[in-house]
Amino acid sequence: MGGGTVRSCPPVLFMDPLKATPPPETKLHFLDYWRIIRIRKTVILAVFLLVVITATLVTFILPESYSSTARIKIERDQPDIGGFGNQMQVSGYDPFFIQTEFEVIQSQEILGNVIKALDLNKVWGAKYANGELLKTPETMGLLRSRIALRPVRNTSLIEISVMSEKPDEAAKIANEIAEAYKKYRIEERNRLSAGGILTLITERDTQEKKIVEAMALVDKLRRDLKIPDSMAAENSASPLLSSETLRHINALRIESQAEFVRQDTLLKELQALTPKTRRQVLPTAAQDTLLSSLLEQVTVADQRLLTVEKDYGPEHPEVIKAKSQVADLNVKIGERVEGIMIGLGAKVDSMGQGLTNLITEVEKATKEDIDKANESQPYFEAKRRLEELQKFRVLLETRIASETIDKVLPKTAMVEILDSALPGARPVRPNKPLNIALGIIIGLVVGVGLAFFIEYLDTSVKTIDDVERALQSPVLGVIPQNVGLMLEEGGESPHAEAYRVLRTNLLFSRKDDKLNSLAVVSAGAGEGKSTTVFNLASVFAQSGQRVVVVDSDLRRPTLHKMLGVTNSIGLTNYLLKQNTIEEVIQTTNVPALDFMASGKLPSSSLGILSSAQMKDLINELKQRYDFVFFDSPPIMGVSDASILASEVDMTLQVIQYRRYPQPMNIRAKQLIEKVGGNLVGIVLNNINMSQDESYYYYSGYYHDYYYRSSEEADPGAGAGKDKAKTGGDKTKLDIKPKY
Q1: Does the first or last residue of the chain, that is N or C, have fewer Cβ atoms within 10 Å of its Cβ?
Q2: 233 secondary structure, DSSP code
Q3: Which residues neighbour 450 within 8 Å (Cβ) at sequence distance 6 or greater?
Q4: Residue 525 vs residues 3, 505, 533, 557, 602: alpha-carbon distances, Å
Q5: Residue 507: partners with Cβ closer than 8 Å, 6 or more residues away
Q6: Residue 79: what pLDDT?
Q7: Which strand ranges, in their side-by-side order, compose the sheet holding 147-151?
Q8: CA–CA dist 308, 285 (Å, integer)
Q9: pLDDT per residue over 65-118, tens digit each?
Q10: pLDDT at 695
Q11: What is the pLDDT of residue 605?
């Protein structure tokens, strides 16, 4: 294995989960829907043809059927004229009544009578059971399947339609159903009336017996309770206190009680005051003029006392006289205050006693009324019971008379046959134009719906907007389908222009001109990164820049197969120090383009790309060449691509059109950024320009220009290109060691 030693580095582990940031929602344009229809047109066309052909075949296979319709008018159960004591009622539109009658028409009672009247068990048995009689349930099932009931909107009309292979049979069945229903309604009404009248008569006889018993009980209670004639005519015992008197007494009691509470409260508050404060408050609370006069006099005397004391001194006769006068007034005021308090107390006691007497009298009168009412209550209850029985007997007799008359009145208005069914002139089923038209519409709807459903389930990349919205990275290039090696197709091929656009965008995306090493990665296998990296390097080399392509996909290298060279010596030999850099680099027939194969990878050196020798190689190649391109394995499969992305200056992610779901591509981008890689942009690969016109402006211009120029220069160039495609004149590559 050579004597070289490889400095191993710990493998790159991504312990924390990388969650894909959900892309922002965008509104779909009409052109987006049109694009989906164009792309999924095969599915739409297949479903459309399948549905239309199936609908057409079924339409022409189904037997022809004729329809006949009878129209009837229905009303609720009532006679043709108003009954005894009642006015004829005109009912409005009632959908619940109409729906109920729908079920009645399809009931066993009605259809059984129709089957019996037309002998359908025998007729249809000969037609459908090889001459054997059908059972009634079987015939009824066939009949129900051929009946269609339809109400005329906002009316009481019902259309009874019957389908049959014979027009006469359809008309006959429809008319018989209408007749059977009419007969059933009239008979059912008469049966119910007879039963109701019998029940009313039985109830009337029962009430007669109850009335006789109730009258005997009333007479007995009147005698036992000694009810006078004046009271017997009343509906209840007469009270001693009328309601008006009782209301007046209650109002008087409430007023007296309020005054008592007010006076009692005033007395208690005055008693709680000090004597000095009480004599100041009493004139206002009790409104006593004498006390007010005495208080004014004592105020004047106090003022005079102060004046004489100031003028004469405390021992002067005038002072002594003034003091005597003040003392005398205070005594009178105290006596007056005491008298007023005694008067207030007596007043409160008197009011309390009066209120108590009033309440006692009212309670006494009320008790007497209650006792009197309780004593005579059985009589009046029995009397009310008798009156109720008598009223009920009158109602029963009136109802019996009314129902008896109603029973004999004609009732043809309940069901009226307006239009009898006539045999159909032409078949109504199958409706061939309608069925085929529905097949066309349903086929289109199902086809388009299935196409959009498939598109909804397809979460892969479809447009440039999908990429830029989901990955938040610019799209630097769009590569069409069926791209080969530029060394084989030539620099003037229309595909080369797509890579020249990618080269231009890549150069403008660099933040520094010193950034010249580029790794091309993808999320999964088969996205075209190897073809992309080699063709991009070829375009750079054709522009005069020195370029080297390094196949760093050590596990599944493909570049050497594309170029038709050996993979026995290459990158791994240099990294393991088995060969020098000059020995592992090979040249191509493009002067400025060199190639380094991957070499054989020993199983013991899987982490070789993370070695210091790899970093030295990258630095060495960056100094020797203008641009260094690395082909890498899928970044989701192994860690080699992540390691390589962290060591080069720039990383370019290749995404194949409609191959892998968007979350997988988003995760690949996050892996690049996680290791510190510089993702400069995205290449959208393998675009079907013929199906998706939204990409036409990326390649249509130079594609048309190329073929137009070729035809003007050499009319036979098209044939030459076809020959080249078939392999008749394929350019061979000349790969040899550089040194």
Answers
A1: C
A2: T
A3: 43, 44, 47
A4: 34, 25, 14, 12, 22
A5: none
A6: 67
A7: 147-151, 157-164, 66-74, 415-419
A8: 34
A9: 889 999 999 888 776 665 554 555 555 667 788 889 889 999 999 999 999 999
A10: 52
A11: 57
Beta bridge partners of 162: 68, 147
Q: Which of 226, 255, 216, 111 is nearest to 174 (CA)?
A: 111
Strands 593-596 and 585-587: antiparallel
From first CA to last CA, the distance across the chain in angstroms is: 23
pLDDT of residue 4: 39
* Helix (H/G/I), strand (E/B), else coil: 550: strand
Structure tokens at 481: 């389908």
Integer angstrom CA distances of residue 535 from 485, 525, 548, 551, 559: 6, 18, 12, 13, 11
Write down the pTM of the prediction. Answer: 0.46
**457 with 700: CB under 8 angstroms?**
no
List the beta bridge partners of residue 631: 520, 551
Contacts of 52 (CB under 8 A, 6+ apart): 436, 439, 440, 443
Residue type at position 651? T
- Measured distance CA(306)–CA(299) in Å, rounded: 11
Nearest to 174 by CA among 321, 302, 72: 72
Q: How many CB atoms lie within 10 A of CB 143?
A: 20
How does strand 650-656 pair with strand 679-687? Answer: parallel
502's tokens = 């990618």
Q: Which two tokens stand for residue 154?
A: 């906002």
The single-letter DSSP state of residue 477 is E
Cβ pair 565, 586 in contact under 8 A: yes
pLDDT, position 239: 60
Tokens representing residue 557 in the block: 């290298």
Q: Which two tokens stand for residue 232?
A: 């017997």
Q: Which residue has the tokens 């005397």?
A: 301
pLDDT for 322: 81
Given a cut of 50, the residues of the chain with pLDDT beneath it are 1-21, 85, 699-700, 702-703, 705-733
